[in-house]
Structures are given as structure tokens and as C-alpha cells.
User: Fold Adenosine deaminase from Oscillatoria acuminata PCC 6304.
Amino acid sequence: MAESEPNRILVALAQMPKAELHLHLEAAPRWSTLREALHRHHGRELPQTPLFHAPDFRFADFDEFKGCFRHYIYPWLQTKRGYAELMEDVVDSLVEQRIRYVELNFNVATVDLLKLDLETVLEQLAASVATAGDRGTTIRIIAGIDRSQGSENARLQVQRLIPYPLISGFDLHGLETPETRADRFQDAWATAKEAGRKVKVHAGEMDGPASIYAAVATAGITQIGHGTSAIESPEVVNLLLERGVVVEMCPTSNERLGNVSSYQNHPILALDEAGVKVTVNSDDPTWFGLNLTQEMQRLIRDRQVSLDCLTRWTRNAFEVAIADDAMRSQFFTELQTWQQTHCPSLRI
Assistant:
């Protein structure tokens, strides 16, 4: 590789029109902004770089991971403009990365836990969504439903949020167990789909391929978050192919949470080779230390992924975007123009 080639690839990635389907709002602000906010609001002094950004760091378990939200994010969100400030930083990061489309997972349970006013929070989010649109980034807010709170709560939350046009869809997340698989929430999904909202779920990250099978074969879900364990079951891989399911893969997240044995063994390439429609995402960049662009850089460096692969995975994401024909066509045109400019001469 020529001396200047790595720099040229970084420039190409910076200019790439991207899409991110799996990004949690409450774990999307840049650490530097979070650090400044907690100092300004609460006088807290945080390190410039947290321990959990170290390349060899692994969370001990899901509870330790959830503790990051309680320790760092909740105190910020409890301030008067907490959600607005957090969202403003997220928008800046998305625009800076040239992410043209994002499905941003908003955890409504956090609003309730912190005893905040839902309408005020949604107004703050809507203002930032509008600003992002003016700056070239389309944001769709996806309401995250905590699977641990049960199916009846899920149904009630869907009914509660459907009247708000800002909510474009619903996602089932939280600690996976056989008792919290997506097919246990059919009433909630039926209500959401009847209202014309997208439904997708986290599945196969912690609970194995049976969780993915339940989501796709029984619940009829066609967009799966993580889905890493699909590779363990040829039957599930075939099901994903037959149903045209798009899988939102988050390699560094899965590594840091111990849901794959190593980054080198992450199944994103194997599933792509099998023909599954994979996409690449950052999931929780505040805690894992990599945004989408940096995740792509890591895939290039550590897994020798080509720009052509990243283009195909981005196209997969644009294909399922909540967008009209004109917007989707614009996304495809921008991506094709970028590919024609950069991919023929830049190979990994």
C-alpha cells in the first residue's frame, strides 16, 4: 500500500454518506461533551478518557454496562435542558460524520424513571430533529421498549406513544432471556404496525439463535438488532435470507460486552458472505469509544473490510430507511456518486 493510501481511505470515509440503524440516544453523546456537562451542572471532574474506552476493556456483565447510564447520563438528563443539550451534541456528531440517515433509539423508560415530563422531552427532541434535517441528517426516533418490564407494559407504552408523530417506530431492547423473546409481545407489535410504525427488535445478542427465530418466524420482524448468534444456526441464516431480514450489527459493542469471543471472530463477514443483509453500527459510542465512522475504520484495519463492502452494507441500511421514494433515491444517488469517486482506486 502506498504511503498516502491510509490517509486517502480516511478522507474517503469522512466523505461517505452513511446510515446508522442502531444508535441509542442516551449513549450517543461524545465523552468530551458529557464530561463538560457534568462539570458545568454538577461540578464533577471526569477523566479526559474513561477506563472503558481502553481497547482491552470488557464490561463484566450487563449490569455493569447499565451502571454507566445511572452514573453519567441520568444526572445530566435531570437538568432542565438535559435532553436538549444531549441531543444537540448527538446531532453535531451525526452531521460531522456525514450520517445522512439514522434510527435513533430513545428509551422512554428513562423518562419515567427520572420522573420527567414526556411531552417536554419530546418537544426538545423534535427541535433537534428539525435542526438535523436542516443540516442534512434525517433522524427517525425509535422508542425503545424495555423487554424486562413485560408484554403488558410494552402494549401500554406503544399506545401511549403512537399519538406523537415524532415516534417513527418501536424497538425491543434490554437483557435477553427466553422469557422476553419478541414473540411474547405480539399485542404491542400489532398495535404499532396497525398505526403504520416500524417494529424492530434486539435479538440473538445474549439469548442465542432461538431468540432470532422467535422474532422473525413468529413475530414477523424483518429488522434485527445485533443478531450475532444467527451464524450458529444454518436454519436461522436461511430464515434471514428467505425473509430478507436486515441485521444491525455492532462489532465493537459485541466485543466489549463479551457477546462474541473476539473482534476477529465477529460474524459480520460470515453473515455477509452467506448473503444476509448486514449493516454496521456503533450502538453506544459514549461507552465503547467508537462512533460509526471509527467503527468502519476499525473494520478496515482489523478485519480488512473493503470500501465496497461498507458501501453495500450502507445501501442495505438505506433500503430499510423510513423514507419516501424521493428521499431514498437521493440517498442511493449520493452513495453511488461517492462509490464511483472513491472505490475503484481505493482497495484494502
User: Anything to note?
Assistant: Residues 325-342 form the longest helix (18 residues).
